[in-house]
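Deviations from the work plan: none for this task. Representative record:
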Amino acid sequence: MSSTDTKPSTAVLDHDKVADQASTYVAQFERNETPIQRFKKFLHHYPIAAPLIVLLLAVISFSVIVGDRFLHPFNLSLILQQVTIIGVIGVAQTLIILTAGIDLSVGAIMVLTSVVMGRMAVNHGIDPSLSILIGIGVGALAGFINGLLITRLKIPPFIATLGSWNVFFALNLWYSKSETIRSQDISNIAPLLQWTGQTIDFFGARLTYGSLLMLGIFFLIWYALNWTAWGRHVYATGDDPEAAKLAGIRTNRILMSVYVLAGVVCAIGAWVLIGRIGSVSPQAGTMTNLDSITAVVIGGCSLFGGRGSIYGTLIGALVVGVFRNGLALAGVDVLWQEFTVGILIISAVAIDQWIRRGTA
Amino acid sequence: MTAHYDKTPVLQTKNLVKRYGSVTAIDHADFELYPGEILAVIGDNGAGKSSLIKALSGALIPDEGEILLDGKPVHFASPMEARALGIETVYQNLAVSPALNIADNLYLGRELRKPGILGSVFRMLDKKEMERRAQAKMTELGLMTIQNISQAVESLSGGQRQGVAVARSALFGSKVVIMDEPTAALGVKESRRVLNLIKEVRDRGLPIILISHNMPHVFEVADRIHIHRLGKRAAIVTPQSHSMSDAVAIMTGAMDVKTSNEAA
Ligand SMILES: Nc1ncnc2c1ncn2[C@@H]1O[C@H](COP(=O)(O)OP(=O)(O)OP(=O)(O)O)[C@@H](O)[C@H]1O
Ligand SMILES: [Mg+2]
């Protein structure tokens, strides 16, 4: 406060005047960067590069280790089918992680809605397309409940969805009576439910409708995130919620919309899941939670929110799919597959932290 | 001076109160901003300046009292409502989203959409136009030498970020511009630019509320100075009637208002 003692109150400080004539030259520094620093900068500048490199390395390694079986067209389409589910659920997870949240209930929502779709169509004889819509409605409701817990009751997303995961999974066991709906019954009564598993020739490659559906979802969400005001608001909410509020964004509404949308996407994932395994099982897709988070994190999304891209998740899902498939082909125990996915997720976050440090 | 003190205040509060638990941040505060003036608000840390302007900008809902815009009572439920009426604010903590780029930040919360069906049905953002206008505004204000309008705000220096926040208020303010310590993080040169900008905005006819701890800056640009103490107005002085040390004395309670008025 010493400057306030100056006598003449209207004085303009001399150094302020000088500043007017100051040159606009911006200081520049000579930089001698090591190759590692340059690589780090490159990764920071192109966040998609790291997951691409990992994917490339994984494909090369497994081709060498496993041999021809890995690159066999049949196996590649198998990988794609696996990736399809991780990818769809990964989209839901990306939306939530962008808002600095996390959703541990995505897998449970998917299984619950698949059971709803299956029982509606097969046991209650409701029209299959209506059954799918009801399933999507249940997914939206599940997301809405998560959103309420987080925005109204102010429960941290981790805890809220940890709780709802168990609740949804228990409901799933109760509603399904822990019984599997047989593939045969579904194809007799409601073949539409298995439509996502049918394959078509797509320029020589055999793709399922589920994979195309997944690509469609990726495109839609990519568009919404990058080309609409809603998308900017999702990023802003995850980045700095207080700043977003002051900028006039209703952050609670954005969060609600994100959780509901994630629920809807999970329900579409359920449809894809039925196509993939043919039957409806209340025990299916138990690894989807961890896999979806891994895909998102490998894809370069920050768990602190506001940073990341949806196509990163697509590559992340491919990485997870390739690892699971390659390890299985190499005869590695499921136990060690889990181990490897665990290592993957930790490395991805560690590399992310390393890239951010010192380059921001 | 282009201010008109005989007219209705543009923005006014009567008996405004805001409590945070046992803390009374605004304690029956009166406040008037007249057309065309730069009104500086000074006060010690925790005096309640930020709380007062948050009430004026809709970021905080007062417990008691009235806010009048052009003499008519208003109730802002959110910053959006205040902005819709032309009250634009640069908050002390800047309120920018670091991961978004400069153009996104300038237009955050009121994005432009493409004309035609792309905008109305597909809700497509008009990124080109937003970037063009953002670029034009930043250049016009001469606030900074930014290489790229689409670079993330987190890659800017503190002063440049402040420039983004100031540019946003100048771009959209149509009634009142409120700035909470806009020069706090700025170097000498950048402070000067912001001060010139403040005068420019005033000369275009917009009244400005300027909160600052920098007495030379306050005494240079302000038409009137509102001294805030313990949650309410302690005095109104002008740079002509009082010296900086008088203002500081009132602010800290070392001089009480009666004696200061006699000194005037
Ligand atoms: N969100 C809040 N919760 C609780 N108390 C608050 C909150 N915001 C402000 N206060 C209290 O209200 C009082 C006034 O704070 P305010 O931020 O308005 O002061 P200020 O005059 O802007 O100070 P500064 O010069 O440091 O910016 C302080 O005692 C502060 O602790
Ligand atoms: Mg303050």
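Chain A touches chain B through 42 residues (CB under 8 Å).
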